[in-house]
Specification:
Blueprint (H helix, E strand, L loop, with lengths): L11 E2 L3 E4 L6 H8 L2 H6 L8 H16 L3 E8 L2 E11 L2 E11 L8 H15 L5 E7 L3 H7 L5 E11 L2 E11 L7
Parallel strand pairs: 5-6
Antiparallel strand pairs: 1-2, 2-3, 3-4, 4-5, 6-8, 7-8
Length: 184
């Protein structure tokens, strides 16, 4: 792994579409972004998502970066908080991480998730020094699958069943390896 500054997460992207570390000021916008039916359906976020949950995300971002167990960003679109995007290190394989993302309903279908996941993928593999990123995606989430496939993520067989919020869901791992190029 590289030797990044542990004071704060780097800022990725630009003013139009970027990733940065969240702060307490982001809590209301995080609550708004994370409290929607699609995110409730397809992620492990608590329902309802409260200010305490948002505070936890802000705290976990600072702590995760300090101890190098994760890189938890918010997505900004024109400087407005438009979602979250994260890498969480696999405790058993510390050069591998799970990628997670959600976009606020008002910002969807404008390429925000694709751009954010591309930023975090390239940074994670080529700057942070990770070797493998994995998105765990439910088979019935075509929008999420459409986000990662053009970025070189490939479906890992076989699929598996996960108990997500008390319901059995058919899932697949989608992996991107450091050496994969988008043309592959
Ligand atoms: C999945 C999610 C992050 C996509 O965010 P987004 O910013 O709207 O995605 P983008 O605008 O970057 O679009 C990505 C692709 O999804 C496609 N897409 C959107 N809705 C779709 C649908 N219902 N079926 C198939 N494809 C769909 C878009 O057409 C686009 O593909 P294209 O560029 O090839 O046309 C967003 O819907 C979301 O937050 N969902 C709830 C949380 C979630 O599912 N997170 C992922 C958990 S694994």
């Amino acid at each position: 792994m590289g030797e990044p500054s542990l004071d704060a997460l780097p800022v990725l992207g630009d003013a139009l579409l970027g990733l940065r570390q969240p702060s307490d000021d982001d809590i209301p916008a995080l609550v708004e972004a994370c409290n929607d039916p699609l995110s409730a359906r397809f992620t492990r976020l608590p329902v309802p998502y409260t200010a305490a949950d948002a505070e936890h995300y802000v705290r976990s971002s600072a702590e995760g970066w300090r101890d190098q167990t994760g890189a938890l960003f918010v997505i900004t679109l024109d400087e407005r908080l438009a979602g979250t995007c994260s890498l969480r290190i696999d405790a058993e394989n510390p050069t591998e991480a799970e990628v997670g993302y959600l976009v606020a309903p008002w910002a969807r279908n404008r390429g925000v998730a694709r751009a954010a996941v591309e930023l975090i993928t390239e940074w994670g593999l080529h700057s942070w020094g990770l070797t493998r990123l994995v998105a765990n995606i439910e088979d019935l989430n075509p929008a999420s699958i459409a986000v990662v496939t053009p970025l070189g993520y490939r479906r890992v067989e076989p699929g598996y069943v996960q108990d997500l919020k008390g319901t059995q869901r058919a899932m697949h791992h989608w992996e991107r390896l450091a050496e994969t190029t988008e043309a592959n």
